[in-house]
């Protein structure tokens, strides 16, 4: 039974009886699930799929400079200029640890990321088990869910961030269920680690504040514990940046650039050659802090001086965030999306699942209103999407029966498979329509 006393009349627990836990030993099932997810990821990585380098060179540059004793600095991508706070620190330190133990080996990184990705699946199982009797379905779905498998092959922050983000959500759910300050402190610390991987990890903090708004004799104590632990975790990095730049508080010198380039006259996410920084920018303003401040002021002006254009960009970024052809047809996301939306509408505000709902809402709002609506931002949330999708499908099976529901769900899967098999032609048609209405 659910450990939450206030789940409402349409509780996920009752809606999921068809998918009761298949084992009486969740620990044993979790171990087998971890091993299954690990094997799936290893098999995928061993296929040797090519991955665009994207930001990998920057992370590698920092990691190798750390090992060489030069400190946390990138130069290779920045025309020889020292860039010391452009990236959050946790992933480059992870890479430095791997390279220090195994040499400059992306293969070693990928293998370790397979383990981390399998750990994320185990966490999704625990979250699903906490929120619904169909937790084992959530876990199995996470083990084979294509995007969560594929990121293990990328030497990027995706796998590392998704793990810490998912772990933070689980710890916060446990703290609420158990009314336990230790779990709250752990959750806050994990928020800090997620933020040290990607600053957007901090968005879990306002989501938790909205969720845990004082409603009992404990008042603000749970919020203070979580917030305090998150602040303590990130404070060494902020202090380091103050020492390096003589400016406080500075978490990253990336924010102004993203604000400007996401919202100016022709946003970089609309350009094929976007996100490039010419050498002249460094020559004219060699100070990393001053560049960030100038970009921030220009980005703020781009929004305030052109509100109509800004609102249009926000609408496009919202569509972009949910777009399924990025760059090819995302069969897995398209398969889950309608059931996630249905589950969010039906169950999203019930007490057990309200925290993940707020995490999704706050994140999407920031990605659309401030950042650039990239599917890279969406991916760490997709594990949570599975919880809502499974909850809705469980209720649907309960309502119409397994045979009818199975036929309809299978038919939808086949439809998506047909689209995947003909993705080039369909994608070209979609792009033609988007270009016709000036959305591409």
Describe what this molecule looks like in 3D.
The chain contains 19 helices and no strands. The chain is globular. By secondary structure, it is mostly helical.
Large-scale geometry: globular
Output mean pLDDT: 90
- Report the sheet with the most strands, covering strand number, pairing sense and barrel closure: none
Measured by DSSP, the beta-strand proportion falls in: under 5%
Number of strands: 0
How many DSSP helices?
Answer: 19
Uncertain runs with pLDDT below 50, 5 residues or more?
A: 1-11, 13-19
User: Which structural class do the helices and strands define?
Assistant: mainly alpha
Note the topology.
Blueprint: H1 26-46, H2 56-68, H3 90-102, H4 106-131, H5 135-144, H6 146-150, H7 158-178, H8 181-197, H9 204-211, H10 221-245, H11 255-263, H12 279-284, H13 288-304, H14 307-322, H15 331-347, H16 354-369, H17 375-400, H18 402-421, H19 423-436
Which key phrases capture this entry?
440 residues, mainly alpha, 68% helix, disordered N terminus
Provide a quick synopsis of the model.
The protein is mainly α and 440 residues long.
